[in-house]
Every structure is written in structure tokens, then in C-alpha cells.
Amino acid sequence: MSAAPKEFLDYVDAHKDAFIKRLSDAIAIPSVSGDASYRKHVHEMGHFVQRQLEAVGVATKLVPLGPQELDGQTVELPPVVFGKLGEDKNKKTVLIYAHYDVQPALLSDGWTHDPFVLTHDKETDRLYGRGSTDDKGPLLGWINVLEAHKTLGIELPVNLRVCFEGMEESGSEGLDDLIKAEAGPGKFFDGVDCVCISDNYWLNDVTPCLTYGLRGISYFKVTISGPAKDLHSGLFGNCVHEPMTDLFHVFSKLVTPQGKILIPGLNELVDELTPEERERYERMDYSIDDINESVGASIAISDDKAEVLMGKMRYPSLSIHGIEGAFSAAGAKTVIPAKISGKFSIRLVPSMTPENVDSLVIQYLESEFAKLNTKSKLTVENLHGGKPYLADPNHWNFVAAAKATQAIYGKQPDLTREGGSIPVTLTFADALGVNVLLLPMGRGSDGAHSTNEKLDLSNYINGTKVLGTYLHEIAKITK
Amino acid sequence: MSAAPKEFLDYVDAHKDAFIKRLSDAIAIPSVSGDASYRKHVHEMGHFVQRQLEAVGVATKLVPLGPQELDGQTVELPPVVFGKLGEDKNKKTVLIYAHYDVQPALLSDGWTHDPFVLTHDKETDRLYGRGSTDDKGPLLGWINVLEAHKTLGIELPVNLRVCFEGMEESGSEGLDDLIKAEAGPGKFFDGVDCVCISDNYWLNDVTPCLTYGLRGISYFKVTISGPAKDLHSGLFGNCVHEPMTDLFHVFSKLVTPQGKILIPGLNELVDELTPEERERYERMDYSIDDINESVGASIAISDDKAEVLMGKMRYPSLSIHGIEGAFSAAGAKTVIPAKISGKFSIRLVPSMTPENVDSLVIQYLESEFAKLNTKSKLTVENLHGGKPYLADPNHWNFVAAAKATQAIYGKQPDLTREGGSIPVTLTFADALGVNVLLLPMGRGSDGAHSTNEKLDLSNYINGTKVLGTYLHEIAKITK
């Protein structure tokens, strides 16, 4: 039994075509945030979003973020759209986040149709277009919900706060500072009880999920230098210490081919697996075949599905990305590179933090390097870091989303964690001190950031229903 | 006591200025073989060399080598200059090799003077210019020798065969086939008793050397592939096998940071060190400081001079050159590269050959890779190979050169081996089946291939004397 009124659900079904038209209008605005020549369209999209919100009863404000240097010119950052609906002290206040900018897309990249013309494939009932799933579909899902409530005269069961940005695909420039500045008594985010972000995807194409964790990261650049300039291996091979040899020795001590991190102390920082958690991974609607299919080869690290999913979601990983300064072209150059930088990163999970990880990593690299007994020099830099995020999936915010999903899809959602990071999640959690839920609308196969990005019509429509139902479930649960 | 007549030595001293003028005329022709727009000057230089040889009594022939594709156009390869002087059955027949082309050089590369104008620094008595030491000085040294003999009416004590090429700096295109075609009864190289190549350098700036060995090479490209495309380390780290991790593990098993090759069977192929040889390295006029100075850092692999010199000259080496296909730019990309190729080469010494080395290397790589228990795929390619060269330094060809050096410089020359390769050496040795001597004219600091290439005037003049005396020593020893 859905907590949402039947009229609401019926309205969504009845207005399918209008909702498609709304998405079509949004897709037509090429709001590519990473290209200065498209910046005017990002601003245009911000105004479009503001008008849509105002039309469904939300009081809005465009927050300017100042100028930005991009592609050799100074451009104005697109505004954050703040919105407010309801001030009822007896209701929970839900902050919703989405973004209205998109990744670049050109027909010549391999799109079947113009990426900025919404193309409805009637056979598969899929909606193709840049931004369909990332993130215009989910953003407009909220507008659809509010339109239905306004038109039907149904009172919204929660207070709503809106934060829609236009720079997510380009590092969310300016947003972190704004969130921190607007947290606290009397500020815009004052009174927010929970956050809902709809900007990720189901694990597969059939089972909805709620996401309660994200891995953090620590990125290292390890530089080893020897001779003052590159040497000829004929003249100096087996005569001097070679930085490349040293690097291969040191990096071979970082991680096993099975993904086990060899740096002492790191695995001990990982929170212990609970039986409840293990069971969550066992239950997940995902198979080894799904993993192999998504990477295009049978290379899963284990035959145990839960192990592989935990490797990706709840355990750290260490990946070597490349070497800067070595010979990297085609052909057969006989160089001894003078100075090289190997790069690797570690994905962090609770209770790892950049702080407690970095010192262990640097100490280990230095001690392994010392064992080599080489005359090369080692320096280690940390290029960037970010904490992991973990929400309580038993919080009413998640329970409401799970009940909404069950009501609409007739299925218990998987409780997943993401291997990568969505930095704004952590910013909200830290700045507001509330539970942050990731409630995806699209499927694993949607191809966000890729060519022929799509959103299944059923996900758009059912996703709209889930978002609305979720608000009613919150009101019901927390009453 | 020199075997050469005193008049010859006096003539060389007396004609210093004319010899400098000859070198100056040669330097003025920018015979850069690697650039199509300079090709006409290479041909011009070939004709210059022919005229010089004819003027001192050598019967010459320009051997065309056909067309070549270079910089998008078809150009004519510069001719090989063949020369013949003497057919006396009672004399030894000496084949001399040099090259008349040069490396590119532009004033803007950092030259102090125009690289194609011979600049005589009177304070240091050094002759600056592209080709001064590599290889126009040595080539003209032979012309100087022949001019002196002709003018003085001194009969040449040996028959001479000349092979001067114009493509050495660009892979000696066409020369190998010509040498093979002209070896054998009735052909141009028929009757050659020994070869003298003057195209390398002293180990340092004070002690002459003779070179009797060159290392060979085997170059490997090791490709490891996993996923069908590059992956995001957040999404797939610790979920699939990563080719980079595998490569670091395998390559860490190739060689120690001290230069010891770890591939079983390889070191066993190296000829045993004789006490006589060891003593040769102990005696060499070279120090650890010289090595550190030449590489610009204190990174010599040992404190034992002989060990370091043997590492470079008479033992194999293994150098890792780089990785193709990994992230190699600046910055912090979080990619799991899908397919990468690590490259390394082994410098070979007798009795290693590409044939007996390659199978051991490939077998070892495959067995080490199998131990990793990864699902990535491994392929090993051999990109190119070349045998090492070793002449008998007790052969009369070397003894004559040593006596000539002792007579002119008052010093026993060091007997050295080169860490790199000069392929034509091996071609002559294999095709003609005779002893090949490398008799350098210039010093270690000459900067062949570099900016401000120079030849010390004393090396040019004394080097000319050594070349002439060497011919007389041959006649005397082999009488």
C-alpha cells in the first residue's frame, strides 16, 4: 500500500506525454558546463528551471557564484537555484538536490540522433538525449511531482528545500562554499531534516536500489629521480641505478593481482563486516556475468558475487594509473628515463580517512624504497584526497525511500554503496549534519557521460511516482 | 719507435693549417641525412669526398643505393663511396670505413657558433662544428694520411679499400645489403684482411683507446590486456583484475635495483671473465667520479670501478624503458588502463644471441605471469634484436693500432668495449670474416650528436698520425 494518494499516481500516468514534452524542452537546451562557448545555454537552463519551479508553487532565488576562467576567457558561473516550499513546523523538511548542466555531446561522437533533440524510441520506450538520465530526468521528476500536487490540490506532506546546481559536470565549482555558508541558524538550509540526491543509477536494469555509501580517495604521485638527464641504455645500462627499475620494485609491493592491499595497517582501518551487511550483498540482484559484461571481459576478481560487490563497494581498492616521464609512445626507444612519477590511488571506506591512510602509505613507500639500496631519490606527494561517506540505511530517510520503491516497483530495493565519490553528498552530510539518501531514477545501462545516453520512459514515470511517494512515506513514518 | 717514416709525421705537423682548412670545407656542407630538405647537401658531400680521394690517388666509384621515402617525399639515397688503392699481393689489404653524413644541428638548439662553420677556439685549440668529431674529422684523417704519402712519394705499406657512407646517422639504409653483395670472390671486398672503423670515442679526455667489443640487443614489448575499455577506478577498483598491477608484478621480477638480471639462464650464457680481461678493466683510465659526472648524479651501481665498467661493457644489462597505453600525462586521472605494453630491452654480450636469449625471456615472463593467477591476458613480442660483437684484441690488427697509439701518444691505449652497438661492425665481421678494429680519433667529451660538437686539434693531428702509423705497423708486424 502506497502512502501517496491514488490521484497522484493516476495523474502521473495520465500526464505521461506532458512530462515527456517537459523533458524534451529541457534536453533542447545544450547546457554543457565544461565549454565556455556553451555557457549561455547553461544560464538559459538555470532560468528554465527557475520558471518550472515557480510555476509549481516554489519560491525561488538564483544565487550567483561569480566569475570563472574557462577556455582562456572569463565567464559567469551558472547560478544555483534555491527553492522553498512550506514552513510548517509539524512537517519534516526535505532538501532535494539535482543538477541542470550536462556533459558535452556531439552527433559526430557516435550518437544515433542529435543529442540535444529528445528522441523517443517507441519500440523500446526509451528516451534518448544528453541529460535524459544525468540529471534532467530526475530533476524534472521533482517538478512533475509538484505539478501533480498543485493541480490536484493535494497538500505537500513535507516542507521542501531545493538546491539545483549548474556546474556538477565541471567540479561543482563554488557549491561547497555556498552550502557551508548557508548552513546554520537563520540560513537557507536551516531546519533541513534530510537530503535526497537523485543523481546515480541502479546497479543493473531490473532492480531499483538506494545508495548509502561512497568511497573516498587518496591519490599519490611517487617520483623517483636518478641521472640529471635521460640516458642511453647502451651506454649506461648496468652501470648506474635506474629509476624505472626502482619504481617497478616499489609499486609491485602495493597490491596483489587479486586486489589485496599490501600496505600494513590499511586493511585494519576498515570497519568490520556485519552479518546483516554480508547478507545485503548476497541478496543484491547482480551476478558475476553482469560484472564481466559491463567491463567486456571475464576478469572479475572472484567467483563469489558478494566478494566482488564488496570489493567494489565496502572495501578499499588500490589502482595504479600510469607513469609520467617515462617513454610512452609507440616504437622501441632505448632510453633510461631520468625522472619518473608513478601514480596510484586508494579508494577509501570507513573508517579510513586521507589523514590516517596517507601517513601509513608514505611510511611504507619510504621503507620499501630504502630496502632497494638504490642511489635514486624518492619523493611522495599526495595530489588530492576525500573522505568516504556512509549513511545509516536504517534511518527513516532510507526507510521511506525503500517503502516508496516497494510500493511503485513491487520490489525491495537493493541497498548499495558506490565505488566512486559524489563530493556534494559529503558536503551536505558534514555541513548540515543530516542523513543523505541517494535515490536513483535511471538504470545501469543508461550511459550517463557516454554516447546515446537514455532514460527508459518507465523509469521516468515510475521514478516520478517514487519521488512523490517517498515524500508521503516520510510524513507517514515520522508522524 | 714509430714504424711510420719521420717525414710523414713531420708532414702532418707542417700541414696543420691545410688540414684544418680541409675540415672547414667539409663542415661547411650541411650533410644532414635525416632531413629530406638537406639531402642535396649529403650528395654534395659525397662528391666532395670522392674528389678528395681521387686527388690523393684513390680510384673511386660512387655506388647508388636507390630511392628512399623521407618526410613524405621520394629522395635519392646518398651514394656509398668505394675506393681502391694498391693491388700488391705481398701487402695486407685494409678496409677503412667512415661516414660523411651528420646529425641535424641548428644554431637555435644552443650552439655557441654556427654549427656549419668550423670555429677554431685558439685558447683551447678546439675545432667546433657539426661533424667535426662524428665523423668528418676521422674521415679526413685518412685523406690527410694519403696526401702526405703521395706528396712525399712514400709508398703506402698496405693495399687500401675505402667504404665511406652517407646514411650512418639514419640507420645506414642500404649499406648492409651492399656489403653482403660485394663480399666474396671477384667482388669489391675480395681480399680484405682487416677492417678499421674510426667512428667512436675515447672513454675519457686523456687516454686513447681501442674498442674490441659491442653489446647486442633484444627489445621486448609485453602487452597485458584486461577489460574491453579503460575503466573508472571508483567503479571497478578491487572488483576486476587490473593489467597495470599485473605488469608491475611481472616487471619487478626482471632485474634487481643493482642491475642483476633475474631471468634464469641468462647470466650463464655470458662468457667467463678471464684474469687478463679483469686486469684490463682495473687498468682503464676511468673512475667512479667520471661516471657520476657523465650522468650528472652519484648513481654508479658500485664503488668498484672495474665492476661498473664491466657492467657497462662486458656484462648484459636490462633496462625498462616505459609503458605504452597507460596514463602518462600530468595530473591525477583515476583510470584503470585496459591494455598496456611495458617495454624493456636486454643488452647482449657473448655468448648471448637474440636466439638463445629470447626463448628464455619469453618462457620466464609467461611463467611469472602464470604465478599471478590473474585473468588478464599476456602477449610478448620481440621488437628487434642484434648480436653482440667481440673481436680478438690480440689480433695483429689491434696490435698494430696499439703500437701506433703508443708511438704517437706515448701511452698504451685502453682496450674497451662499447655498451651500445654500431651495426656495420657486425656486418663487416660477418660478411668478410675478418677482424674489425674500432680506432677512435676523438675524446669522450666531444659531444657527438649534441650541441657544440668539437674535435680537439691535437686529436685531429695526432689522430691523423695514428692512422698513418697504424698502416705502417700492420706492414711491419705481418711481414
TrEMBL record, chains A, B:
Domain Peptidase M20 dimerisation: 212-370
Keyword annotations of the record: Hydrolase, Manganese, Metal-binding, Metalloprotease, Protease
UniProt feature coiled coil, ranges: none
Residues that, per the record, bind Mn(2+) 1: 134, 169, 449
Active-site residues from the entry: 101, 168 (proton acceptor)
SUPFAM superfamilies: Zn-dependent exopeptidases
Keyword DNA-binding: no
PANTHER family to which the protein is assigned, alphabetical: BETA-ALA-HIS DIPEPTIDASE, CARNOSINE DIPEPTIDASE 2, ISOFORM A
Protein name according to UniProt: Cytosolic nonspecific dipeptidase
Organism (species): Thanatephorus cucumeris (strain AG1-IB / isolate 7/3/14) (Lettuce bottom rot fungus)
